[in-house]
Structure of Transportin-1:
Amino acid sequence: SILILIQAIMKMAWQPQEEGLRQILKLLKESQSPDTATQRAVQQKLEELNKFPDFNNYLIFVLTKLTSEDEPTRSLSGLILKNNVKAHFHKFLPVVTEFIKSECLSAVGDPSPLIRATVGILITTIASKGELTAWPELLPALCNMLDSQDYNVCEGSFGALQKICEDSAELLDSDALNRPLNVLIPKFLQFFRHSSPKIRSHAIACVNQFIISRTQALMIHIDAFLENLFHLASDDDPEVRKNVCRALVMLLEVRMDRLIPHMHNIIEYMLMRTQDPDEGVALEACEFWLSLADQMICKEALSPHLTRLVPILVRGMKYSEIDVILLKGDVEEDEMIPDREEDIRPRFHKSRTHTIKHSDENGEEEDDEDDGMDDDSSLSDWNL
């Protein structure tokens, strides 16, 4: 109990020394220099500073409290701390860990979007170090902050929760944490109709993490989920529409039974979205046709719509001006070199959810040599 008392006093009493703060700010400024020799020297100094137990206190202080500094410097301080958490978290003193955690929670609603995002990254990095079980107040605190009247607090906590859902989906559905999804999923669904598009987008993205795994906490609310998705079908915000398309594509794989009664309307909707003025939305919608092609009901569901779908897909095949410029560049660069066999053989694209589902089942992604376009790096290069 004496140790707890000492830690409590340290926690209350910790304040940065002016000289220490000055040195760290100087380092943060130097690390933004384009000169590689300067960067190397900074890197070395940062490693040395890790030997001081309260170095990480300074970093979190700059991120969350030092509002006199510019945002990129504060954010950089948080990102260096994130790297320290990744590399040395098990060596942190308990009092330092507690200080960082409490500072993170107090800064979730920082007025700056950049600082909010950095705090969210830091929270989820700490959580992914096995700390979700050792930080029992985290999820209830973030969940309560969703109801804040302060937009920044609501948006910041949603940003952090989305990252936690992405990184720790399995743990969130485990007894180890007392199944927080039973509370979180109904909570997320309430925000599908929020006035802010950013919040609506966060809410869908959080729920989407639990579709492919058929998480029980989501499956019992599947009808409410669908009703809210359909409500957002024509949302003004492209990010929201993108997440709606993603959800429907995954639901096609795992809850076809619930989609069949609405299939005509869903196909009509996807015909519209495949022509969406936002190319990111159109790309997400295009996944739908690939996933539908894998389903038994494809012929029956799609036949009445083919006369409209085929022209839309063919129109989507037309290269944009940028594509043409890039392709010309490629041709001019190597027009004298004969094509290799793998450059010209056909490629067969599988839907993304197909790949995700198999990677979940096998613990790793399938590697199909004919399918060079199915890894994550090239997916980002897919255009319409």
In short: DSSP finds 24 helices and no strands in the chain.
